[in-house]
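Archive entry. Fields below.
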Amino acid sequence: MQRSNSGDVRYDDPWYDALASGWGESVGPAEAEAPPPARRADGADVYLEVQRSAAFQEVRGRYRRFVGPAVLAFLAWYVAYVVTATTAPGLMARPVAGAVNLGMLAGLGQFLTTFLLTWAYVRHARLRRDRAALELRWDAQERARGRGGAA
Amino acid sequence: MTGDHQVPALLLFGAFVAVTLAITTWVSRHRQGSAEEFYAGGRLFSPMENGFALAGDYMSAASFLGISGLIALVGYDGMLYSVGFLVAWLVVLFLVAELVRNCGRFTLADVVAARMRERPVRIAAGTSSVTVSVLYLVAQMVGAGSLVALLLGGTGEAARAWTVVGVGVLMVIYVSLGGMRATTWIQIVKAVLLLGGTVALTVLVLLRFHGDFNRLLLTAAERSGHGEAFLAPGLAYGADWTARFDFISLGLALVLGTAGLPHILSRFYTVPTARAARRSVVWAIGLIGGFYLMTIVLGFGAAALVGPDAVRASNASGNTAVPLLALDLGGGAGSTGGTVLFAIVAAVAFATILAVVAGITLASSASVAHDLYASLRRRRGKPRSEVAVARVAAVGVGLLAIGLGLLARDLNVAFLVGLAFAVAASANLPVLLYSLFWRGFTTRGAVWAVYGGLIPAVVLVLLSPVVSGSPASLFPGADFQLFPLQNPGLVSIPLGFLAGWLGTLTSPEVPDEARHAETEVRSLTGAGAV
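PREDICTED_STRUCTURE:
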């Protein structure tokens, strides 16, 4: 219904989504507390359909192709840092500049890589995933609506 | 060194309590008593507000007092906490925040139970969430106790006990009256105060050394009596292989534990969408990263200006290094500047403790009411009654934390938090990741993953040198120590993952394809999210 608008919407505005998720219906506490079972049964097919769709596989692929290597990389770098600090304190004590030694630099390097990866993830999600995911969200909710009636 | 700086500190702290109580009353005037309101604050906080609140929930007294104190005492080895606490947020950002926001409603168990048979999974995840929360609470209570002991000098034994009781009572009031909305605003106020205090102290330390970080390090190394070794790893954890494995175990627990902390997970439900959850984590990473960088400066600053001996004399585990540093930076004991600065730092630390305690109490009362009570009862009640249970649960959790806080008062706060993280990483993280990413995961796998991490973690702590067998233990008289490490993470985290895998393999149940599809589609797109 409002799908035609989705092109000119600001994607980084959370308030927009707050409205979108409600679909113009009032989400009362009681409804939110226990979704009617009918919705769940019909919804299940919809979710299977969406899961098998090429668009969803693409979103999932993009997410996994970024997050998988990134998690492995930062965990490996962090574990390497901790293990080196414990098993080779001599190496970490090697002076670099003045009182600053290799261990100090490695520790600050952890801070730096954390900030960089955060930036990279957010950028990737915003440019490569958000738009497609929102389309899929409309799609899934529209299908569920078409099938399940009111809920 | 009591008396003159005691009064301003108590006045400032009283002001904070008054302001937060006012927030609580004002907020609860508008409350409707729905579960949505009580657990999630109406889900309409902005990413920036929630980012500050996340940072407020996370930057506990353990960081402010404990980490700086550890760095002041053992130098570089204390830095591991700072690094681990920050890197952990990448796990939260990449794997947990958005997906949990999309799939769940109030608690960790919501995410898991969506795919599984609800009752056993909820009971398991609820139990482990409450355990983690109580451990974390004890750490905060101990921090409050140390602070008061410092304020009131040697005469403070009774005052210390009363502080722990007072903190407990206040947090119960915040949580049971104000719910998530009041708790979030308290976190925001506290995060601003804490960051402001930390920035001020850091600037003063750097000014003292004319902006020369190198000289700060050299002075700290010289004053410590260890020389260059103070700036390199090994002082605390380099003695033998047991200590080294302890260090690695702690490192693992820190980085994997954050994503399993119930009070952090429940924060993602206070924003409207997954995208808002992501942006609040980015805010949090920025604030927390800056904060931990400053704790390093404060730790080395305390070593250089106060000296490890004076720190140790005040509190054996270093919890009071930062207040002592403030006293010195302001001009020393007896001076007006020192008195004022000390009072500010002490009040900020108190505010920190109160706010974190309120956040954790809220999360654990949600676990009790929404997961445990709702599953153990025959029929689910109305939302109204669940909130009533949550309020009562907040009182119960508060009493338990007060009791344990009185018992554990001599342990280092950062170290206690390390234990809470180990339990969170062992019991909560495996089940959460498996349910989000593993197609074949089953109910038995979920239940085994929780108990397979929780039970080893708790048992190993009970058998560790923390509880018995050494002069520094909780029960120095007894000796049933069998496990050599202080932190169980190295063993219990893999066990949690292994148990979940084994439980799934041996389970006769066929994984429900459709419900997995629902979890996967919902988690990545936000379809059907509340």
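CURATOR_NOTE: Chain B has a mean pLDDT of 85.
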